[in-house]
Structure formats: structure tokens, C-alpha cells
Fold this protein.
Amino acid sequence: MPPGVDAVIRAAGAVLWRAPGNADAPEVGLVHRPRYDDWSLPKGKLDDGECPPQAAVREVAEETGHKVALGRRLGRAHYVVRSPKARQTGPKIVDYWAARAVDGTFAPNHEVDELRWLSPAAARDLLSYDFDRTVLDSFVAVPLPTATVLLVRHGEAGERAEWDGDDYLRPLTEDGLRQAAELCSLLALFVPSAVHSAPPVRCVQTVEPLAAALGVEVLLEPLLSEDGYTFDPDAARRRFLELARGSVVVCSQGGVIPDLVFALAGPAALDADGHGDIPSRKGSTWVLSMRDTQCLTADHYPPKT
């Protein structure tokens, strides 16, 4: 780092929400930090080796005592930390997610002495910073989902031309197995309750670590394989929508995912580099926030490596 240039502070946070009585009238959780005497969304700096979604979940737990299920992305805040009370000053980038409270109890700690649950309108009035208000506005702008579907493309499995057996039996390579482990860490942040997969071995192997961690079986979905989807895409899409209940993982193939995502999310899912493609690299994930049969938002997570 050149002299006089501050390192960028990377952080992550969330709009913590719950809907105890009415799914259309959520409450959001704000935290009071005595060090600054301010009200903010829960957030904090990334630990070494931590990705932003992991940091968001950890920071919410540390500041509020609540385990959460991540949902859609809510954007990124850029600002400069100048307060003499801060442990580190300089430019700061904070990535935010919607985060549904799953369970937990707040206890005052050295960073946060109060957690207050409020309507979004009341929370907006209480927040101390405009950048937090902008993130909250992004949360309010989209209805609450009824489901979060994690649509995964299988990991690396080598070249089809170099495999002599039945293509359905082509397994993950060492790189693919590493991707499966990395995906397990990411997908678990969304607290899925079920894991589905197209039948090819490489698809099943991609989500087996997650299924083992959750203590559930991998449920096979023939319609969501390339063969099944090509034969009857309408039936495959109907089956996908049937699976969209709560938080669920679906692993499929490159001949399915782009078309399926476009059918659900439309042009908003196209990449931003002008090629007009739906990104779908091996080991990648689409996080689709669904309300019944409507896709509200589509967030793409490229493979970590």
C-alpha cells in the first residue's frame, strides 16, 4: 500500500427481518452501538479468508444473537470512515443481504447494547446514516419471498470426450470435489431444508456434502436433467416451481440453467458485459427469491475458484 493511502475496509451486513404476524408487514432489527451512540443495520468487517455472505451471517449473530437465513442481495454501500472512535479509518465497502431471523435471543454485548424491532418506516426514521436508509429502501422495494431456491450447476467433471462410460456416471474431478465443499459452506448460509438434484452422478456429488451436513437425502429430479428438460421444458419448469417452498437447493446442468433462469427472471438475469448470456459456470449458483410462481430477484454467485 503506497504511503498515505488507506486500505479499503471490507465489511458485510444485513437487513435483519421477521414477520411474526403478517408476512406483508415485516419488522426489521436495528442495533444501537454505544461507542458511536448511533442506530444502524448490523454489520462488521470481514475476517481473514472470509467471504462477504459468511461475514454478514456471523456479524448479525454476534451483534444480535440471532441465527439467520440469508436471502437476496440488497446492494453495496461506499463511504469513508473518519470518526476518531473507529478502530480503522478510510474508505469502506459494505455488502448487504436480506436476512430472515430463524431463532435466537438478544443479549447486550460490548458492541451493541440494544436491539430494537420496528416497522420499516419507523426503522428508516431511526437510522443514523443515509447509506443504511438506502439499503433499507432496497429491502422494502421488493415483496417478501415465499421461497428461496438455490439453483446450482454441478462442479468440474472433466471432459465428456475423455470419459468412456455412461455419461450419467461421469464423476466430479478433484477440482469438482473441492467446489462441492466450497458450495456447502455457501449454500448452508441460506439454511435450506431440502436438497434436490438431476440424476447424473456429477450433479448428485456436488450437493452431497451439503445434504450430509443437513442430515437429509439428495432427492432426484429427472425432469431437471438436460435430457428431461429438453424432452419437456414446460413440465420441467412446472416441477421446479413445485419445489419452490421455503429454502431449497436444486442442482442441475449447463443445458438447463440458463434457459430456466431466463424463463423465470427474464432479461434482468443477463450478464452485464454485453454478451447477453445467463452466467452458468460449473460450481456457480443462482439464488432465486420467489413469491409463489413469480421470481422476484435473481442473484448470481460465480464459483469461488
Q: What stands out?
A: The CA atoms of residues 23 and 144 lie 7 Å apart. Confidence is low (pLDDT under 50) at residues 1-5. The first helix runs from residue 52 to 64.
